[in-house]
Amino acid sequence: MSTHLNNLSINNINTNNLYRQDFAIIAGWLGFGSKALDLGCGDGALLSYLRDGLEVKGYGVEKDDTNWLAAMQNDIDVIQMDLEAGLSEFEDNSFDTVILSQTLQAMHNTEAILQEMLRVGHEAIVTFPNFGYWRNRLQIITGNMPVSKDLPYEWHNTPNVHLCTIHDFDALCHQLNITVIERKVVTNGNDVSFMPNWFGNLAMYRLKRSH
Amino acid sequence: MSEINSVGTDSVGIVTPQTAHFNEPLTLKSGDVLPAFDLIYETYGKLNADKSNAVLICHALSGTHHVAGKYTEEDKNPGWWDNLIGPGKPLDTNKFFVIGVNNLGGCHGSTGPASINPVTNKPFGASFPVVTVEDWVNSQALLADYLGINTFAAVVGGSLGGMQTLQWSIAYPERIKHALVIASAPNLTAQNMAFNEVARQAIITDPEFHGGDYYVHQVVPRRGLRIARMLGHITYLSDDAMGAKFGRKLKDTIKYSFDVEFEMESYLRYQADKFAGEFDANTYIRMTRALDYFDPATEFDGDLSTALRKVTAKFLVISFTSDWRFSPERSREIVKALLDNELPVKYAEVTAAHGHDAFLMPDKHYHAILRSYLSKVEV
Questions:
Q1: pLDDT of residue A149
Q2: What was the ipTM of the complex prediction?
Q3: Candidates A69, A89, A94; nearest CB to B372
Q4: Cα separations (Å) of A108 from A8, A9, A161?
Q5: pLDDT tens-digit profile of B190-199?
Q6: Which of A35, A89, A94 sits opposite B332 (nearest CB)?
Q7: pLDDT: which is higher, B43 or A150
Q8: d(C-alpha B280, C-alpha B195), whole Å
Q9: Which residues in chain A come in under a pLDDT of 50?
């Protein structure tokens, strides 16, 4: 069920009923009644889930018109803006958690958005498709850019400009002085603890600023 | 601003304005007192039994109480927001009781500079006080009382109307459930105020203005009003929209004259003549002054977030990408202040080519947003 969908404006994909496994893990990292900001919130399925289950007070950010309208119809407080421009509408430490779910790989300003998330939130949750997953590696070895249900685009039409592996992301966090509080790696909804950079297709990170 | 001609089967139909008379003195922000005043208004739809379905429409610079419907079967000019309001339309009169009101200082039936001052039996003229957004909202609240409406399901306004909507949420937080602030701003920029000053100077320096007391001379400062309106029209449209509408099209050929040669000139002159024939110059200079003065953050050291701390309404804020007179950045300032107060807010930045006038256009996505939002407003 961890079909990869991109939250940006490429396909106007409706995210209803998908991601449930991710949702449960993300919910586990949020406190009851906490305040969350979901960047690239799509139709607001995650925020609806967090609101209904945990009474999370949530705001969403979404650029695409169709997704924005769908989020509004789900009664999400959704702000239409481009994440690449930063989060200047949001004050420092104004959220408990800022979430970037399966959108990092499509961001141009990767470092900037991570720093913005940890400026605005006490914690950040980042999830992304692990490019080091063995099926991706296999396709590279056989001479093609990976195309799968997690990475459904061809090389020439993908919105994913910054794909990375778990190792790569760990290194970036270290470089940016970001502490990994917790990391979950899953494949088809199941935890992967053995060689996650080979066997996990979705990486989920809970982050905070290092002091 | 542009009118839309689109009365169809979903029209509210034939409407009749009504006038509410208020005998209690109204103290204005300036300190001046209006001993009594009239407000002209129209309503569409039916007020429900518990009076919970009322929606107030606040008009912009040159708007009126005639928001929807028409006055006769043959009427070619429906209300200025007729494309939005009616049975089955985004602001659905089967659900809501919608009120349009002409603001104080107006020239369409509410007490204004052209009204007769009962003390002198002459038009107020220059003696009519300078009214503010705050004064308008206070007088609209008196109209709500008069109509027996304690709480508005929503207050809706574009441009200067959006400022009134914002002021409603600040001044009467317990009386407004939803605020729809469209193509607006928390105050005007210096550039925006500069346009207003040019418009006022055009009017005030017209020899037929007579210091504002032109009524007794039985003249109208047409030249000033015309220039003010032309300037306004230029700023309400985007460069692209003007390019698409007129480009460099000539009416005929180049004649090496200063007559109307380009289509754009023809349009501006037509709009100017039309406006000068129906709008009062004293009202125009007061409406632009109200725009200039509005700045709820002033009392809070310029901090809009503090100014909004008593607000309880839920907000829908909409801006248009090509609107340079009330740009998206200005709407986002409102959004930021609402976020700082952890208030419910939805913000849409609609891609539109029409500039500031886009808020009056029946753009599909824009109307889908309003329809969807309003359908969820509980009454």
A1: 85
A2: 0.93
A3: A69
A4: 12, 14, 7
A5: 999 999 999 9
A6: A89
A7: B43
A8: 18
A9: 1-18
Question: Does the CB of B259 have a partner CB in chain A at under 8 Å?
Answer: no
| pTM (2 d.p.) | 0.93
- Of all residues in chain B, the one with the smallest CA distance to A91 is B340
User: Tell me, what amino acid is at B117?
Assistant: N
Which two three-digit tokens encode residue A44?
Answer: 């607001």
CA distance A88 to chain B (A): 9
What distance, in Å, lies between the first and last C-alpha atoms of chain A?
37
Burial class (CB in 10 A: 0-12, 13-18, 19+), B49: exposed
Place of tokens 């632009």: B288
Q: Which residues of B touch A81 (CB under 8 A)?
A: 332, 347, 349
Query: Do residue B339 and residue A89 have CB atoms under 8 angstroms apart?
Result: yes
Indicate yes or no: CB of B373 within 8 angstroms of CB of A59.
Answer: no
pLDDT of residue A21: 72
From the number of C-beta atoms within 10 Å of its C-beta (0-12, 13-18, 19+), residue B127 rates as middle
Where residue B256 falls (left for φ over 0; alpha for ψ -120 to 50; beta otherwise) is: left
